[in-house]
Amino acid sequence: MPQYDVIIIGGGMVGASLACALSGQGLRLALVEAVEQETRSEAGYDDRAIALAYGTRRIFSGLQLWDSLEAAATPIHQIHISDRGHFGMMRMDRSEEGLPALGYVVPARVIGQTLAAAIGKIPELDILCPATVTAVQRTSGAAEVEISREGATTTLSTRLIVAADGADSPVREQFGIDSVATDYRQTAIVTNITPQLAHNNIAYERFTQSGPLALLPMTEQRCAVVWTVASDQAESVMALDEADFLARLQERFGYRLGRLERVGHRQAWPLRLVQAKESVRERLALMGNAVHTLHPIAGQGFNLGARDVAALAEVLVDAVNAGEDPGSLEVLSRYGDWRHRDHKNVTVFTDGLARIFTLPLPALGVARSAGMLALDLLPPAKRLLTRTTMGRSGRTPRLARGLPL
Ligand SMILES: Cc1cc2nc3c(=O)[nH]c(=O)nc-3n(C[C@H](O)[C@H](O)[C@H](O)COP(=O)(O)OP(=O)(O)OC[C@H]3O[C@@H](n4cnc5c(N)ncnc54)[C@H](O)[C@@H]3O)c2cc1C
Q: What gap in Å lies between CA 338 and CA 341, rounded to an integer?
């Protein structure tokens, strides 16, 4: 039976990043991914965008991947948060943090290609794809992972299973770890637009009664749109023709960027919050969407997962260097305890935003306007908010400080 130190289940952005982080550490690694990743290489108007916090840029720098991402990254110099129909407005500016950018908007395609190229060069990593994990079980001092590949079933042995297998995490289920899921009854409609005026590297978050609306600066003067609508209205918004869609969006967003002139292909993402009740067990660590699936309102999901990667890699490498068993509960609890506060803070923050800014009560509108003004005028509170959204609060892993593992 093939033997590994770590088997990563799920080769999405989080699982692939962990494989990069653990490379070169003398560990025997496998990554099991069910779906062959998109191989489309040409850039297109419809690129889906991911906002990376400044802390995530540091992690990608630590993984030696930032150079490949930078050419496609649009820096965010300012974030404007406003409430449609109310007076409140808050600004965050890179100069207040003394950094070149508050974050970066990068096409998901480029992140996927960069990670795929990087994991393909790791000699000690076996990539099993397309292959599906069908069963997992603990044995004494190890764990077994049963995979189905091209109609054949194989069993692998490992000291540690890392579940990076997404919101519905079959591995989480098989280990009997409970999760709490909340359906927001909201759907994010994602597309790209071209406005009449230059975006000037400003990201806009606008709260409207029908849901939050984000416009993120991209290359070629495009903006990535994430527009949250009530799920029972999503179908009709998706069915609008281009002119009507742009008119509806313009009405929600206003004229800060002049007329909205072009729109690309639209995709709809139903939204839910999923929280695993435990993040570690003997021989198992959960990470990324498998442990926290968030509302995309503040673009925090992958950023939180990237910090999981940096923390778990640091804990595992330190443990192995100290002669410890990387799959022991004692070692994995260090990761679980470390990540607990960040998971909780970011979940409470995004869930609170998703709820408070979508309730239509007039008094709430005044309160949140006043709250935004107060935040804008109170430097320490605003600084805390900025640092949380940039992924810079709490204990920072070495990779996120730009240091080697
Ligand atoms: C509309 C929208 C906008 C967003 N914008 C942002 C943003 O701007 N910034 C940000 O930080 N985050 C953002 N996010 C969140 C971000 O996309 C996710 O947090 C991130 O993609 C999660 O990655 P993951 O690798 O944990 O999970 P996934 O991407 O779900 O990957 C899980 C992988 O596991 C594989 N898998 C599952 N089961 C098995 C099995 N049994 N065997 C083998 N493989 C298996 C799947 O095929 C999949 O490839 C956004 C989310 C949405 C919905």
A: 7
Residues with CB under 6 A from ligand 1: 9-15, 32-35, 50-51, 132-133, 164-166, 170, 188, 190, 226, 269, 288-289, 296, 299-303, 305
Using a cut of 0.90, tell me whether the model's pTM lies above it. yes
Q: How many degrees, rounded to 5, is the angle at CA 220 between CA 217 and CA 226? A: 35
Return all residues near 225 (Cβ < 8 A) that are at least 6 apart: 189, 190, 191, 192, 193, 213, 214, 215, 216, 249
Q: Are 135 and 174 in contact (CB under 8 A)?
A: yes
Burial class (CB in 10 A: 0-12, 13-18, 19+), 88: buried
The pLDDT value recorded for residue 392 is 62
Type and span of the H or E element at 283 = none
pLDDT tens readout for residues 354-363: 877 555 555 5
| Residue of 32, 265, 289, 353 to mutate, ligand 1, most atoms within 8 A of C-beta | 289
CA atoms within 13 A on the CB side of 3: 3
Residue 405 above 90 pLDDT? no
Going by pLDDT thresholds of 50, 70 and 90, the confidence category of residue 97 is: confident
Tell me which of 7, 8, 14, 115 to substitute to probe ligand 1's pocket, judged by most ligand atoms within 8 Å of the beta carbon: 14
Radius of gyration (Cα) for the chain, nearest Å?
A: 21
Judge contact between 365 and 85, C-beta under 8 A.
yes
Tokens of 402: 């730009």
Q: Detail the DSSP E strand segments found in 150-220.
A: 152-163, 179-195, 202-208, 211-217
Tens digits of per-residue pLDDT, 27-40? 999 999 999 876 55
Contact 310, 398 (CB under 8 A): yes
Closest CA to 299 of 41, 58, 19, 48: 48
In this structure, how many other beta carbons lie within 10 angstroms of the beta carbon of residue 389? 25
